[in-house]
Design brief:
Blueprint (H helix, E strand, L loop, with lengths): L4 H14 L5 E6 L5 H4 L4 E6 L13 E5 L13 E5 L1 H4 L3 H9 L7 E7 L4 H9 L14 H10 L2 E9 L9 H11 L9 E8 L6
Parallel strand pairs: 1-2, 1-4, 2-3, 4-5
Antiparallel strand pairs: 5-7, 6-7
């Protein structure tokens, strides 16, 4: 993931649009101390695959834990489950989605955030020159790939959209470019961030 505060704020802004306040949240993703608190959850369980999150400062309603994504089985149900780059970093996508299903009720919505696979060469170059963190991305997935995994794991995708073509702020340059791409969506296919929203099909596991 890009390691600039501006980029994190773009992701948080989209999640705030999708998730009402005071909802229960299960989060799988890269540790960021601002994203989940900005959502003002009723409570949140945040699972990260980086060692630094095990020492993260939480509070009474936001907890951080370290584990491999595919190994965690939820012990309770959640209103929203966020997979933030998690499908790309997990060692077993099917196992992860099957476990996620255990945290779902009929009203639960799963929000998947993935980096566009078309950006793979640029992101690898950015990592090599220090503009982004060197990630553990194992799976560069297309929206079609993710849809197939979801459907085979008991989920129905309900909405897909892309955001952000310029992840750096650089004064007013980044915000202006991203705004123009919202107004004139000619480059929608090449936007960096892909969001897929899915709901559980409960009869699939009854």
């Amino acid at each position: 993931m890009i390691k600039h505060t501006y980029y994190y704020s773009l992701i948080a802004k989209t999640l705030k649009f999708l998730i009402p306040e005071q909802k229960s949240i299960l989060y799988f993703g890269v540790y960021d101390p601002t994203t989940i608190p900005s959502l003002n959850p009723l409570y949140a369980f945040c699972l990260c695959d980086e060692q630094n999150c095990s020492h993260a400062a939480g509070n009474d309603h936001i907890k951080y834990y370290h584990s491999k994504f595919q190994d965690y089985v939820p012990e309770k149900k959640f209103d929203y489950i966020i997979l933030d780059i998690a499908l790309g970093r997990t060692e077993d996508i099917c196992k992860l989605l099957k476990n996620v299903f255990h945290g779902c009720e009929r009203h639960t919505r799963v929000i998947i955030h993935q980096e566009n696979h078309l950006w793979e060469p640029l992101l690898k170059l950015a990592g090599a020159i220090g503009l982004k963190k060197k990630e553990k991305t194992k799976n560069w997935l297309s929206v079609s790939d993710i849809t197939t995994f979801l459907q085979s794991s008991g989920f129905e995708p309900t909405r897909t959209f892309n955001k952000n073509v310029f992840p750096l702020k650089l004064g007013f340059v980044g915000p202006v470019i991203n705004w123009l791409c919202c107004v004139f969506p000619f480059f929608d296919f090449f936007k960096l961030d892909q969001f897929i929203i899915a709901r559980p099909i409960m009869k699939s596991y009854l």
